[in-house]
Amino acid sequence: MNARRSVPKGFIGLLGVVAIIASACGSSTTSTAPSATASEAPSVAAATEAPSPSLVNITPAPIAAGPGPNGGTVVRWFIGLGAGTQPAQIGPEQAFITAFNNSQKDVYIQYEIVDNTQASNILKTEIAAGNAPDIIGPVGVEGLNLFQDQLLDLKPLIDSTGYKSNGVDQSLVDFFNSLGQNGATVGLPFAVYPSFIFYNKDLFDEAGLPTPPTKVGDPYDGKPWDLDALRTLAMKLTVDKNGKDATQAGFDPNNIVQWGFESQYMDNYNLRAESAFFGAGALQDSSGKAVIPDYMAQAAKWYNDGVWKDHFIPTANQVTSDLLSGGSEFASGNVAIDEGHTWFTCCVTPSAPKKPFKFGFAVQPTVNGKITSPLHADTFSILKTTKVPDAAFKALQAIVASGDLLTAYGAMPADQTKQQAWFDSIDAQFPGMKLDWNVAKQMLAYPDIPNHQSNVPDYSKVRSAMQAFGNAYRTTQGLDIDAELAKLQQTLQGIFDEATP
Amino acid sequence: MARTSRAVPAPIRRSREGRGQLGPSGREAVWGFVFVAPWIIGFLLFTIGPLIASLVFSLTDFDLVRPEAVRFVGLDNYARMVADPLVVQGLVVTARFAIIAIPVTMIASLGVALLVNSPRLFGRNLFRTLFYMPIQIPLVASTLVWIGFLNTETGWLNGLLGLAGIDGPDWLNSATWVYPALTLIGLWGIGNFMLINIAGLQSVPTELYEAARIDGAGPWSSFRRITIPMMSPILLYNLVISLITTFQYLTQAYVLTNGRGDPNNATLFINLDLFREAFVNNHMGYASAIGWLLFTIVLVMTLVLFFIARRRVYYAGGEA
């Protein structure tokens, strides 16, 4: 009798325990985690801007099967991987879509705006559920890599429609064409973000130092503008609490209050990003072997020495300290030089009550006799699961041609004829400062090819390995960089071997 | 319990006999089911459904961005887990953190509950509110505040230690100190456990303390021989929930390390590894297998706890 009663009781108890654990394990803890973002520059801007309104409320209900209200083929546009989710951007997007939908009867754009921090995961889920949108973007090179297998090759559509990227330099067209796998064209040129030197003019004036050159080939203080010149200059601009700079005897590295150099927002100390102004190269040779390019090894040592020996680059703890505004290093006013992309104008204004400082642009220094300006780019793509490629391509052409969207996104146009308007819009944000946009224009001639965000097998894992390496030299004194690089190469080889069938 | 189980069939019998109406206990049972139905439906749809789906996924190489290429791989994902150093690391990190954080959290929440339940404390309600308040702050926001607090350069904690002549550690970048740091951050969230403990403390009959006092028991003796045994079901509940939440630990580690598990994978909790596999590396099939490993571990540990509880936990109204 007892045995008979105890079995179901125990079983029910076990079921109860399972149910409790299943319920508890299904709680919301996981959902609060930030998502891995597919965006590059725009996500940085997003972090500094006002939070989005409820995106659920501004995304209209999906249209069931059939034509849109204007009688056109419905094309779904997914916004959120990069720019486009901020309140100031949503209005112009809606205005563009309304105008486009009213202007013709062939295509009806249905938009879907999702939170930037969740966009990548939402898109993955939609793809996995067989509910993928037709168009995605704006999206950076990195975002494209995450969805590389799902992107439609636009070449047949470009050929059949005779589409031309008017006003875009052929080198940039080639750059955009290089972003797909196996020669596929996966995005139309939209926006470019060359990189260069941002400098805090007030700190230069205070130190009585001339600002770096704004023209390629010009010297700095009578000497070549190269990596050594940058190092020396950065050390002179690194100051301790007693006012001594890092080149002077008695400099106190434990009490630094101002740093000479930083590469802020380079993807969390990602070595591949931080080293990109040293040169360009692939992480894998033609035989599939993992490679650490020489320029990258050189950069790793330069950064490591810069942090621990010469002290002109802040440690990770210094970066997150109040002295550097908890990760807004350049805007803190305590960093003299920052190597950044054009989008970095988003993040140079200090928070109140600090007053804005004057800043300027300078060209990249030469490294081993060459200039390299790491390039970021934004584009729009069509997913290969689309059932309406022709209609989607028509919408895509209109989107990339929209000057209003470029302005709303704060994106430097790939189309040269539209660039001046964008320069003017940025200048208007910084009254009293004369920003030399010729620097940005010049730097477009020195893109890093292959790009530092170019696709590799299992891109996400490689990116993590590169970030972990950078984090190590920002947090650990006395690292044997050669040994660490050897370990990194081994890690990369493991990732490539696992990813390659 | 026994009375209810005998009473439930009665109205059904009457119904079959054609009397048409349920008795009071039958109506009570029906309404009971009606009221719990939303939870049951939600549980089936949103917990059991995904649970079964994840079990199926775990037997495939399901990739989030290549759903069309999904293949059945049998137990390959489970075999791969055994040899995956990151899974092993995730389990070690989680276990290490559990060993430090769970006892500290349990003791601290009980200690604070005793404190704010003391009749001698002036402004008890104010202190209860203050200790509970941090729970209301989103985890991401509070973690960012803690990053500043623990910063070696300008953080308040090392600043205070410095005043005492102590050179504070690198809390967040040291593989050793990051666990105490995370435990410290976790102490901010003991408000829920504190509330449950207060409820438990208030349910202990005061007659027991009075009788003990008459018998000459001091505060420590009363605490050890009355409070702890009478609170044991509450403590067991807190322990089980702590265990589950520790194995679910993710947000703070993600925010602290940008989701990488720095320094040197010292914060690569098993749930963070799972998250990375699923949503960074897109290996949903493999991540599902890790999820089932996690589920099995938590289930076994909970069963062990319940088994131990048979001897160690005192239920005033008989065994639950």
User: Helicity range of the residues of chain A?
Assistant: 25-40%
- Provide the CATH architecture of the largest domain in chain B: Orthogonal Bundle
The tally of helices of chain A reads: 19
Counting structural domains of chain A, the number is 2
Biggest β-sheet description of chain A = 5 strands, mixed
Low-confidence stretches of chain B: 1-17
Give the tally of β-strands of chain A: 10
- The CATH superfamily of the largest domain in chain B appears as MetI-like
N to C succession of SSEs of chain B? HHHHHHHHHHHHHHH
Q: For the largest beta sheet of chain A, what order do the strands appear in spatially? A: 2-1-3-10-4
Mean pLDDT of chain B: 89
Instruction: Give the helix/strand class of chain A.
Output: alpha/beta
CATH topology of the largest domain in chain A: D-Maltodextrin-Binding Protein, domain 2
Radius of gyration of chain B, CA atoms, in whole angstroms: 25 Å
The fraction of residues in strands of chain B falls at: under 5%
The quaternary structure here is heterodimer
How many domains in all of chain B?
Answer: 2
Count of runs of 4 or more consecutive helical residues of chain B: 15
Biggest interface and residues each: A-B, 50 and 55 residues
Which regions of chain A contain 5 or more consecutive residues with pLDDT less than 50? 1-7, 27-54
CATH class categorisation of the largest domain in chain B:
Mainly Alpha
Description:
The complex is a heterodimer of chains A (501) and B (320). Chain A has 19 helices and 10 strands. Chain A is an alpha/beta fold and 501 residues long. Chain A folds into 2 domains: 41-194 and 376-414, 3-Layer(aba) Sandwich (D-Maltodextrin-Binding Protein, domain 2); 195-374 and 448-499, D-Maltodextrin-Binding Protein, domain 2. In chain A, β1 (73-79), α4 and β2 (107-113) form a beta-alpha-beta unit. Chain A is globular and about 75 Å long. The model of chain A is unreliable at 1-7 and 27-54 (pLDDT under 50). With 320 residues, chain B is mostly helical. Chain B has 2 domains: 1-57; 66-312, MetI-like (MetI-like fold). Chain B is built from 15 helices and no strands. Chain B has helices spanning 2-7, 9-16, 24-57, 76-83, 85-117, 124-132, 139-149, 156-163, 178-187, 191-202, 206-214, 219-247, 251-257, 270-280, 284-312. Chain B is globular. Residues 1-17 of chain B have low confidence and may be disordered. The interface between A and B is large, with 50 and 55 residues.
